[in-house]
Amino acid sequence: MALEIFQRKEQKYLITIEQYERLLESFGDRMRSDKNGDNGRYTVTSLYFDNTDKTIYFETKNKLEYRQKLRLRVYDDATEESTAFFEVKQKHKKIVNKRRLLAPLKEVYRYLQDPEPDLSTYDTSNIQVLKEIDYFRKLYHLEPEMVVSYRRHALHGADNADLRLTFDFDLRCRKDDLLLEHGPYGDNFIDQNLVVLEVKVEHSVPLWLARLLQELECEQRSASKFCTSTELLSERIGSQPAIQNNTAKETTTIGGTENGSDQQLIYV
Predict the structure, then answer these.
(1) Domains of the chain with bracketed CATH
(2) Cβ neighbours of residue 128 under 8 Å, at least 6 residues apart?
(3) What is d(CA 58, CA 71) in angstroms, rounded to the nearest whole number?
(4) Tens-place pLDDT, residues 243-257
(5) pLDDT score, position 6
(6) Alpha-carbon torsion (5, 10, 90, 79), positive or negative
(7) Could you tell me if 98 and 88 are in contact, meaning their C-beta atoms sit under 8 angstroms apart?
(8) Whole-angstrom distance, CA of residue 11 vs CA of residue 94
(9) Directed axis angle between helix 207-215 and helix 17-27, to 10°?
(10) Quick one: CA torsion of 3, 79, 87, 94, rounded to 10 degrees?
(11) How many angstroms from the chain centroid is the CA of residue 97?
(12) Closest listed residue to residue 133, CA positions, set 180, 72, 175
């Protein structure tokens, strides 16, 4: 059964496909593919929420000490009958907390379409989490904002179940079609030659992994998928001047060396 409430630390890196391949070669028997998907590979499609003032965007952008997001997520090919994960992701300093429930996608749609939902009538795995989601939605006046999708390769420690690595490829976003069952498509918001690596642990990153990341010059980056997508879509539709005029937009770049020489910065 999927965990519904958990806490962990996360570190993000922006790496090249070559660095990804070299990491896999270097792991040896210390990492194993996730049990989900095809040998740990699957697609992720998420519906994110915000309000007309883009409060969630600005709280994330300004890196408030305590911030949170609401999202609805499905994996691989989905229909309205598929299981969806409806969750609040909270971040306090460097600690990530997730509180989520499982429900048929059509049931979450029914909740979102009801202006005065009776929470006791919904088929969900955790009514308490639904109450928290409902309070959060009403407090912030949250509505469906955009869909973000990508291909993921997930690994976990062979002898350390608390260590989890995810590599995300082909990151896309869209705003004109917010139905998750229509699958992972949209505009790329990160260069297709780059990969978002997330290192997820309960306590600290193992020394062998920290040394490997340093050796392969994997650079830590705090670029937010949510903020990058919001900025790209804002430019495409010509809305939200406050976002368009923001001089500190997400900049996903990488540096380091390749073939013994300085590598040119890669910009999105």
Answers:
(1) 5-262 (3.20.100.30)
(2) none
(3) 16
(4) 655 546 655 555 433
(5) 73
(6) negative
(7) yes
(8) 9
(9) 140
(10) 80
(11) 13
(12) 72
Q: State the virtual CA torsion across 25, 27, 30, 33 in degrees, nearest 10.
A: -70
Q: How many CA atoms lie within 13 A of 59 on its CB side?
A: 17
- What's the one-letter identity of residue 226? F
Number of other residues whose CB lies within 10 A of the CB of residue 234: 20
Q: How far apart are CA 235 and CA 126, in angstroms?
A: 38
For residues 85-105, average pLDDT: 93
Q: What is the pLDDT of residues 30-87, one digit of tens each?
A: 999 999 889 999 999 999 999 999 999 999 999 898 999 999 999 999 999 999 999 9
Q: Give the type of residue at 65.
A: E
* Cα(115)–Cα(211) distance, integer angstroms: 52
Which tokens sit at 207? 């020394």
Question: Which are the contacts of 184, defined by CB distance < 8 A and separation ≥ 6?
Answer: 43, 44, 45, 149, 150, 151, 170, 172
